[in-house]
Amino acid sequence: MLSANEKDKDGWISNDSAAFLSLKTALHAYFETYRVSFEESQNPIKISKLAKLEKFDSDLYKSLYFTTITHFQNFFELILKDFLRKIDELFAVKWNEKFTASLYRKIKSKELCSDVFCQSIEFSEALKRLKIIQKENPKDDVIKKIEFLLVKENDETLDFLNDLRNRIWHRGLYYLFYPKLDCFICGKILPLVKQVTDLDWYSENKEWIYKNLKCGVDPIASLINEIDNPPVNYEKIALLKEMGRAAYHNPIIQIDDNCSILERGAKVNYNYEKMKFVNAKVEGACNELLLKVYDCPVCGQNTFLKYELDDTSFDENDCYPHYIPEKLKCETCSFEIRSNIEDLSLCGINCKNFWKDHD
Question: What is the pLDDT confidence band of residue 12, given thresholds at 50, 70 and 90?
């Protein structure tokens, strides 16, 4: 059997936070769920219809759902255990006896120490211990900062998230319906994510966040706001999810106001080469296919193309040109929407007939 040191030779140890890597993975997956409306069939399902389906048996949706739920749950599990460690390292490890108020007091008074019981606890136990500590010492500095997580509504949200994870991980493949996933993530999970990431301990951690959008929209804040304003506009939620997804894929280097691109050496890196290729592709498409091009609301580049299907018909005497709008796609950041997103105002396009066929 290989020792720990021998195993380490096959890889490397990173200082990255596993919690925030899970958060980023969960957001990636959730933001991509709009794409299930067209990616498997190439024909976009109306978002209003998708929101009413009792069952959406899509392999892509099921895969994205699995990743979304399991990684949000892992993020909160690691965060809850981090809170316990901030109070005392021993609160986050397993003991041979049940964790009660009595055990809390023994650990706090240093009557007990642990050199043996170093196995980490699980999600539900971490949440339970924080509530016990809150009851015993509500004025603890850590508890006071995280008491928003322990109120009944948010406690129930975390329990439900853990149950969803267990149901899909251990007890069979259970999936929330597409609109229910939107309501749960936007209405319950994202507000808690925002509150947690705003805490002093984590506010400087930006490894999980997407790049700023050129249009000024913040997808997470906008999704939270949108779900709080009934009736729920699932079409707008779909658009915001796609904006968030593309923001993660934006290759444009973003810098602080006090630092120029040349000072960072950006002209000779991936960003520069990528844009040379993209601009050549867009120029060729516009010249040869006469495609319309717009500024992308996500990355800000003039590479947001309107693709159309040529359905021109011919007979012996004449040609009858007919073009069917297929999609809008940015060749820089991959932002892509189909005709099931009718309101394009967030994209800077105000045209009610944008997706109409034309001659």
Answer: low
